[in-house]
């Protein structure tokens, strides 16, 4: 039974990893940008949640109403003012600039909030659970998983059923020709980053309610996000969810064998997939 | 309506155009004739804003547009059917057409009108655009440009890589398109077709205009000379 429990917990935590990864996957898919600061932006969102919950007395989930739009606007401005200047045929400049951004964010957060670990207080939700047979499923992890599935489904819907999604796909296919259609590349890219950081906001709030966070915690989240994206296959959002689940389950099983193996087991699962299927389990099928 | 004055263009340090003067009047079809590398495509890419140039080098309806971005120029009513179709592979046939209407210009052309012009596209509307044959893809590319209800269309290598029978179909459709009050610039390898369809021609060689005139009084021998730049 402990194994079943470990796997179920792993699946649920996989939802959080998928949330870490979805934004990453989205901007890579639209503009081939690898955002090294993605993890730090997740931590920034968590701190933003902390400010909103402590100053306004909001529940962390209610704080999303403020944190999501703030992060989305930040994403738009960041892309429009800074990152668009680095975009081109060379992938190195945006990589270096987001790396620098990562350093700035970590140190800025350290300056503003100190290195003390912080946590968002979700009250009764943190300990609530649903009895399922002989197992108890935590309500918060379950909620996280359901939200992750909804976010991925939502992104998928935007991609394939809206004018914005059409613009994303066209610009991703051929940015030059997309401009001939009257699409402003800078605006399309900025909208993609806004959407990415809206998802980051959700990921950050859930991160903060599930576990403690500190200014230096970004890179670890970036790694989990990357691993989920690569396991699932680049550019495939549902694959990213599966990737997150595989990562979560591997960690759960590892932790069950020995607590020290939790992280290692996740990384091993990632390496295994990379060795056997370098393109990921569900690479995007090209038309 | 469209005019260039001393248009120059560079790829890095390489100069591709050396001061080109052209003009296109309303409802006029103009052809660019010249060998590969003469600068025909470069001229079109510069006019549509894909390559940079000085602001007063290109004027549209008496206004300089040289420094506008490609998407801004598209919204003014200048559309291009690029060489090699360049459809969006992730989009279906219908989505490729719809995205052509992105610049939200009202006018004669709608999805229904495009399907009337090319009925085969209606049957294939939900297919991936790049699963179509070359000729059908060219129809999508033309339809996509028309969906913006442009005042001028630039056709780059309209028949390149297509079967002769398909080329005939495309050329049969062209008068219907042009009669909707459009101007056009056409780049075409086939000299006879180019002279037949257009009112005036510009002969380009090594980034310069070497000959221009009305097609009804065109002297083939002179054009051949200008074409090869001898």
Architecture overview:
By secondary structure, chain A is mostly helical. Chain A contains eleven helices and two strands; from the N terminus they run H-H-H-H-E-E-H-H-H-H-H-H-H. Chain A has one domain (2-118, 138-276): ABC transporter involved in vitamin B12 uptake, BtuC, CATH 1.10.3470. In chain A, 74% of the residues lie in helices and 3% in strands. The mean pLDDT of chain A is 93. Chain B is an alpha/beta fold and 230 residues long. Chain B has one domain (2-228): Rossmann fold (3-Layer(aba) Sandwich). Chain B is 34% helix and 25% strand. Chain B has helices spanning 40-47, 70-75, 93-100, 111-117, 119-123, 134-146, 164-178, 191-197, 220-228; strands spanning 2-11, 14-24, 29-33, 58-60, 63-64, 78-81, 152-155, 183-187, 200-205, 208-214. Chain B has a six-stranded mixed β-sheet with strand order 6-7-8-3-9-10, with helices on both faces. Chain B has a four-stranded antiparallel β-sheet with strand order 2-1-4-5, covered by helices on one side. The radius of gyration of chain B is 17 Å and the shape is globular. Chain B starts with a strand and ends with a helix. Chain A binds chain B through residues 166-167, 169-170, 172-174, 176-185, 286-287, and chain B through 48-50, 69-71, 74-75, 79-80, 82, 86, 88-91, 95, 98-100, 102-104, 128, 130-131, 144, 148.
Please give the count of helices of chain B.
9
Helix and strand string of chain A, N-terminal first?
A: HHHHEEHHHHHHH
Unreliable sequence segments of chain B: none
* Main sheet strand line-up of chain A: 1-2
Secondary-structure content class of chain B: alpha/beta
Can you give the helix content of chain B as a percent range?
Answer: 25-40%
| Distance between the first and last residues' Cα of chain B | 32 Å
Largest interface: A-B, 19 and 28 residues
Query: Could you tell me the strand content of chain A as a percent range?
Result: under 5%
The main pleated sheet of chain A reads as:
2 strands, antiparallel
């Amino acid at each position: 039974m402990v194994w079943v429990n470990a796997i179920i917990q792993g699946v649920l935590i996989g939802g959080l990893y998928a949330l870490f990864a979805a934004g990453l996957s989205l901007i890579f898919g639209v503009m081939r940008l690898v955002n090294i600061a993605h993890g730090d932006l997740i931590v920034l969102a968590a701190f933003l949640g902390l400010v909103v919950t402590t100053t306004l007395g909001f529940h962390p989930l209610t704080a999303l109403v403020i944190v999501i739009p703030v992060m989305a606007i930040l994403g738009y401005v960041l892309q429009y003012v800074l990152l668009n200047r680095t975009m081109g045929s060379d992938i190195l400049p945006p990589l270096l600039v987001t790396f620098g951004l990562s350093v700035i964010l970590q140190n800025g957060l350290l300056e503003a909030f100190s290195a003390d670990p912080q946590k968002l207080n979700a009250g009764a939700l943190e300990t609530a659970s649903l009895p399922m047979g002989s197992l108890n499923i935590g309500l918060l992890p379950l909620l996280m998983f359901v939200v992750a599935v909804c976010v991925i489904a939502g992104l998928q819907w935007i991609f394939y059923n809206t004018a914005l999604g059409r613009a994303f796909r066209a610009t991703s296919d051929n940015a030059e020709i997309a401009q001939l259609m009257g699409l402003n590349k800078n605006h399309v890219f900025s909208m993609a980053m806004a959407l990415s950081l809206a998802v980051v906001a959700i990921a950050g709030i859930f991160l903060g309610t599930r576990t403690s966070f500190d200014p230096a915690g970004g890179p670890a989240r970036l790694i989990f996000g990357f691993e989920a994206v690569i396991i699932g296959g680049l550019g495939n959002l549902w694959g990213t969810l599966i990737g997150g689940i595989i990562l979560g389950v591997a960690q759960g099983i590892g932790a069950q064998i020995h607590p020290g193996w939790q992280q290692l087991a996740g990384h091993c699962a990632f390496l295994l997939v990379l060795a056997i299927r370098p393109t990921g389990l569900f690479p995007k099928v090209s038309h | 309506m469209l005019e260039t004055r001393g248009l120059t263009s560079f790829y890095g340090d390489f100069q591709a155009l050396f001061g080109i003067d052209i003009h296109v009047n309303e409802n006029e079809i103009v052809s660019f004739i010249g060998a590969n590398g003469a600068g025909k495509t470069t001229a079109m890419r510069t006019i549509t804003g894909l390559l940079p140039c000085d602001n007063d080098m290109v004027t549209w309806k008496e206004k300089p547009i040289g420094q506008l971005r490609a998407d801004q120029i598209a919204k003014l009513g200048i559309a291009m059917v690029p060489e090699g179709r360049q459809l969006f592979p992730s989009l279906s046939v219908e989505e490729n057409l719809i995205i052509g209407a992105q610049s939200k210009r009202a006018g004669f052309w709608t999805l229904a009108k495009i399907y009337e012009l090319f009925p085969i596209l209606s049957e294939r509307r939900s297919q991936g655009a790049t699963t179509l044959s070359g000729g059908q893809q060219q129809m999508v590319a033309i339809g996509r440009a028309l969906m913006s209800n442009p005042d001028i269309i630039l056709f780059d290598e309209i028949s390149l890589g297509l079967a002769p029978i398909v080329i005939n179909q495309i050329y049969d459709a062209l008068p219907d398109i042009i009669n909707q009050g459009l101007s056009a610039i056409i780049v075409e390898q086939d000299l006879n077709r180019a002279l037949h369809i257009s009112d005036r021609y510009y002969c380009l060689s090594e980034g310069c205009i070497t000959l221009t005139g009305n097609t009804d009084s065109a002297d083939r021998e002179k054009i051949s000379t200008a074409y090869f730049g001898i």
